[in-house]
Amino acid sequence: MKETLIAFRNTTIKHFYKYITKPILFQQDPEKVHDRFIRIGTMLGKNAGGRLLTKATFSYQNSMLQQTIAGIQFPNPVGLAAGFDKNAHLSELLPALGFGFAELGSITGEPCAGNPQPRLWRLPDSHSIIVYYGLKNDGADAIAERLADKEFAIPIGISAAKTNCKKTVLLSAGIEDYCHVLEKFKEIGAYYTINISCPNSYGGLDFSAAERLEKLFIEMKKRKLFCKPVFLKLSPDLSLQQLDVLIALSLKYNITGLICSNLVKKKENAALHPAEKEIWVYGGVSGKPVQQHALHHVAHVYKKTKGKLVVVGSGGIFSAEDAYMYIKNGASLVQLITGMIYEGPQLISSINIGLVELLKKDGYKNISEAIGKGLK
Fold first, then answer.
1. 200-227 as b/e, with b when 16 or more CB fall inside 10 Å?
2. Are 302 and 372 in contact (CB under 8 A)?
3. Residue 128 near residue 272 (C-beta atoms within 8 A)
4. Cα Rg, the chain, nearest whole Å
5. 122 falls in which pLDDT band (50, 70, 90)?
6. How many CB atoms lie within 10 A of CB 260?
7. Which of 9, 21, 173, 278 has its CA 20 to 30 A from that of 340?
8. How many Cα atoms are found within 13 Å in the side-chain-facing hemisphere of 33?
9. Using N-to-C axis directions, what is the helix angle for 288-305 and 320-328, rounded to 10°?
């Protein structure tokens, strides 16, 4: 009965969003819309009444979706990917939306204004967004101070990246920048994510090169920064050979898991609608054009490591079926942003309800039983 009522609630919200809210929002500048929702979400999250209203409107939980991974208890497997809450304003509201975990940032060592505007474009026919933010955020010091006294209702990950500037192209400066973020958040959040895959920063993906990344890991080890679970966020443009090198390095340094994946940068890898290909000049693309590459990487990592590395799937998750596909290909957790923008904020609870139905259909009692079961 409970699931039926929540499903009806979600369907009602979905139709309202699809036919009324989204057509209005999609006529407006996407960055202004995003900033407006951050302000509204911050306001709702700051008071108990706002959180209760949001929870009643959007949330859903079921014990079949609970897991303990790397010592962290996740109430459900659907998380908010880094890149939405860049300055960590929404940590109090996100649990009420039904998320099982969330990543804040990416956060850099120094404040970063990001790339020049415009830096967001919608691709509706491709179910995608072009992102050219360039790691815009307030910097590690300011964000850590903002979060210092907060208690989190769900696991919070801190996504660390290096500041988007010429100075951090130097290896020593880049390592110092990453480590500054990690040191500021030693006592904040349940886990770290090392983002080496932002396609929109000065110098490119320099830490996706194994020799540079290993030097970062060596410095992290020296400074005792493996003090909590560490995930590595990868590019979907990596070849399987490049991926294998990073897998080996991750196993060597006891990295907890890999996030597959970030934005697509290489145009030959993005299955864009033909009418929208000319719009893409700068940045990387999210959403459906990422899905096949991310799924391929998820399955490869799971099979290659036989579950030794936790895999988080991200890219093109617009439904429970999408999330379940990732899980059955080896992902323990999934993340989204673009799906919520296109489908509406009720998507999180809709995915979780749908996952419960899919688990029951397949005879599983817990989401952990389905991980990797779609692979031969």
1. bbbeebbbbbeeebebbbebbeeeebbe
2. yes
3. yes
4. 19
5. very high
6. 33
7. 278
8. 17
9. 30
Q: Tell me how far apart the alpha carbons of residues 327 and 270 are, in angstroms, rounded to a whole number.
A: 22
Bridge partners, residue 232, by sequence: 194, 258
Grouping H, G, I as helix, E, B as strand and the rest as coil, residue 68 is: strand
Sorting pLDDT into bands at 50, 70 and 90, what band is 95?
Answer: very high
Question: End-to-end alpha-carbon separation of the chain, Å?
Answer: 36
Token code pair at residue 81: 């990917």
Give the C-alpha separation, 99 to 76, whole Å.
7
CB-count exposure of residue 141 (10 Å: 0-12, 13-18, 19+): middle
Structure tokens that stand for 188 in this block: 């904040």
User: How high is the pLDDT of residue 204?
Assistant: 64
The pLDDT tens digits for 133-178 are: 999 999 999 999 999 999 999 999 999 999 999 889 899 999 999 9
Residue pair 328/302 in contact by the 8 Å Cβ criterion: no
Q: Please identify which residue in the block is written with the tokens 């391929």.
A: 296
Asked if residue 196 lies in contact with residue 208, where contact means CB atoms within 8 angstroms, the answer is yes
The per-residue pLDDT for range 329-374, each reduced to its tens digit, is: 999 999 999 999 999 999 999 999 999 999 999 999 999 999 999 9
Q: How far apart are the C-alpha atoms of 55 and 114, rounded to whole Å?
A: 33
**Measured distance CA(98)–CA(93) in Å, rounded:** 9
With contact defined as beta carbons under 8 Å apart, do 57 and 356 qualify?
A: no
Q: Phi and psi dihedrals of 104, rounded to 5?
A: -100, 145
